[in-house]
Amino acid sequence: MPQSANSLVRDIYQQEGYVYARSPEEIAKTYGFSRVARLASNENPFGPSPLAVAAVQKALATMHRYPDACGTGSLIQALREYHGDYEFVTGVGMDGVIETCIRVLVNPGEAVAVSVPTFSFYGLAAKAQGAEVINIPRKDDFTVDVDAFIKAAKETKISFLCSPNNPTGTLTSRADIERIADALDGILFLDNAYVEFSELDYRDLMQKHENLIIGRTMSKVFGLAGCRIGYAFVPAWLKSVYEKAATPFTVNTLSLAAATGALVDQEYVDRSIRHVRSWIQKIRDTCRFPVLPGGANFVMIDTTPMTGDACAALLAEKGVIVRSCRSFPGLEDHYIRVCVGEDWECEQFLAGINQIC
């Protein structure tokens, strides 16, 4: 290793990166649990769709071949059959889609706007590209300050807004999204990772706005977090340049097969949504701490007077992993994020949170 190895590393990577929740294995070993409630990562608790598993098993025989470039074969066709006649791009999770969009649009030193508090990866990916990040605070109730967002983001090449927002769960109305898209000179990237759990649908806005990207994922309602499949609705002009910038053969053969299989299992999707909505209501009704309104498969809970870290640590002692929200840009440290898991996991969480003084 070079004598001054740290001097070779870019400044951004000498700082804190993406923050992960504690692992279930660590919690189980530390506190002596045989199983741990995993409620920190907004996963689907049901396991993958049987149709996704069957598609993967069939694809195993073709692993010696490269997958379709950019996922342009069966997955794109399946997305069109599921959503309608839109243009799509794919990536390794929505993170990969975000990185590629920034790579396409942003030169080092240019600005990227982000509505905060929100998913930290927008800012991390922009800084990795050498961009300046403009954080635009939301209002006190975590709704988007539309006027402030437009003013700060108007001349940026790309800006990021999440609805339902991670970690707050807050929804942004279609009218506000249209107003922002109409006002911006650059691209609005609307992150819809959790939109299936809400009652909002933004897809048809793609027909009206040539500067809108809608990001989606197979990780949440489709239960394929381990496959790392993201995709986005994009304007036609962007698709070809996106594919030039994308890493070749990024999405692997088995993940493509799993996603294609999952898209035809509507019964699985409907069951997942019903389960989430039922438990979200139960958590709102019975949690002793304030639960913020939202439309995702998780809730954000105000743990005042405790910090989010302190509350997460106490719940870990009870065999429950939740996400402290301390690391989210622009968010005060007295919140936790809790996703809906299996019945026993949600019950264990409620028992634990209601015992904390």
In words, what does this structure look like?
With 357 residues, the chain is α/β, with parallel strands linked by helices. The chain contains 13 helices and twelve strands. A seven-stranded mixed β-sheet has the order 2-8-7-6-5-3-4, sandwiched between helices. α3 (50-59) packs antiparallel against α10, α4 runs parallel beside α10 (253-262) and α5 (93-105) packs across α6 (121-128). The model has no long low-confidence stretch (mean pLDDT 93).
Task: Give a short overview.
This protein has 357 residues and is an alpha/beta fold. Helices cover 37% and strands 15% of the residues. The chain has two domains: 8-47 and 266-353, Aspartate Aminotransferase, domain 1; 50-262, Type I PLP-dependent aspartate aminotransferase-like (Major domain) (Aspartate Aminotransferase, domain 2).
What's the number of structural domains? 2
Order of H and E elements: HHEHHEHEHEHEHEEEHHHEHEEEH
CATH architecture designation of the largest domain: 3-Layer(aba) Sandwich
Which residue ranges are poorly predicted, with pLDDT under 50 across at least 5 consecutive positions?
none
What is the CA-atom radius of gyration, in angstroms?
A: 20 Å
Return the CATH class of the largest domain: Alpha Beta
Overall pLDDT level = 93
What is the quaternary state of this protein? single chain
Could you give me the name of the CATH homologous superfamily of the largest domain? Answer: Type I PLP-dependent aspartate aminotransferase-like (Major domain)
- Count every beta strand, where a strand is a DSSP E run of 2 or more residues: 12
Biggest pleated-sheet summary:
7 strands, mixed
